[in-house]
Amino acid sequence: MVSKSRSRDSVLSQYFSEIRQYPLLSKEQEQNLARDIQKGKSDAINELVESNLSFVAKVASEYRNLGMPFEDLLNEGNVGLIEAAHRFDANKDTKFISYAIWWIRKSILKALAEQSTTVRLPYSQMKKVKEIRKAEHTLRDRLNRVPTREEISAHLDRDVEKVDRVLQHRVHEVSLDEPVGEEQDTPLADCIMDREKPSVEQGMLEREMVHGVAEAFEHLNYQQRTVISYRFGLNRHETLTLQETGNRMGLSRERVRQIECQAKEKMRKIFSKMRAIKKPPLKEDCPPVPCPVKVVVSH
């Protein structure tokens, strides 16, 4: 065991030594590389990613002692960094890392949430979740809209009640720092938690919050989960406006807004109960249902 630990430390030391050699880039250099990436130049994405690997290591270190090896945290963070490099808009007047940090954290927190869910759910249940998710994606592509529970059940030749029970566990890809909104610069945590509370990046508190959001998401009904997934770009969906979400679900823009506000309020209340947090009422623009979101994306 000692030799394995020393070997792992040696590999990490070598890795850190290597990534320190990559120079930091100016904003102008990053924007030029982003334009080259859009042209399909692989050398450009390598250069942009390599120059920010040290920052990934710094972010990954904040999530230690949460049940995942540090090497895996690094790998997950690097996956997020690469995703950010592909998506970075060269026309935005911002440093790349200011944009990439949400993708880095999203990747790490997603891995942590998936790991915690895997521990709590038996393999047979996980298999059913994946099967239903696949069916939903297939039907969505075929119908060009969100399939109903009945359509998913018919596709799988299962009872609606059984599908509903399995859907309660579809929480793998929910994370507190999921970037949301069309600018992808607002973490999901801002929608359901008090910003004045301690940072989510504090040791065991981080794991508690990941579990808390997942548990709160489980309490939403199918329609609410679908709206939240579309509006916040969860579960591999692109982020949609109220109108776009309504078009896909066959609902009016106003009805989507109401469902979204109800879902956020329900998640906030459940999460607050789990953490015994008392929040004062907030003034929001979603009457009659209070909607505790400081940044509302609507078009």
Q: Note the main sheet.
A: 2 strands, antiparallel
Low-confidence stretches: 117-121, 169-186, 188-207, 277-299
CATH-scheme architecture of the largest domain: Up-down Bundle
Q: What's the gyration radius in Å?
A: 21 Å
General shape: globular
Q: Helical amount among residues, as a percent range?
A: 55-70%
Q: How is the quaternary structure best described?
A: single chain
The amount of beta strand, in percent, is under 5%
How many strands? 2
Explain what you see:
It is a single chain. By secondary structure, the chain is mostly helical. The chain folds into 3 domains: 11-120, Four Helix Bundle (Hemerythrin (Met), subunit A) (Up-down Bundle), CATH 1.20.120; 122-170; 200-277, Winged helix-like DNA-binding domain superfamily/Winged helix DNA-binding domain (Arc Repressor Mutant, subunit A, Orthogonal Bundle), CATH 1.10.10.10. Helices cover 63% and strands 1% of the residues. It is built from 14 helices and 2 strands. The protein has helices spanning 2-19, 27-38, 42-50, 53-61, 70-87, 96-120, 123-143, 149-156, 160-167, 189-192, 204-218, 222-232, 242-249, 253-275; strands at residues 179-180, 186-187. It has a two-stranded antiparallel ribbon with strand order 1-2. Strand 1 and strand 2 form a beta hairpin. Helix 4 packs across helix 5 (70-87) and helix 6 (96-120) packs across helix 11 (204-218). The longest helix is centred in the middle third of the chain and has 25 residues, at 96-120. The radius of gyration is 21 Å and the shape is globular. The termini are far apart. The model is unreliable at 117-121, 169-186, 188-207 and 277-299 (pLDDT under 50).
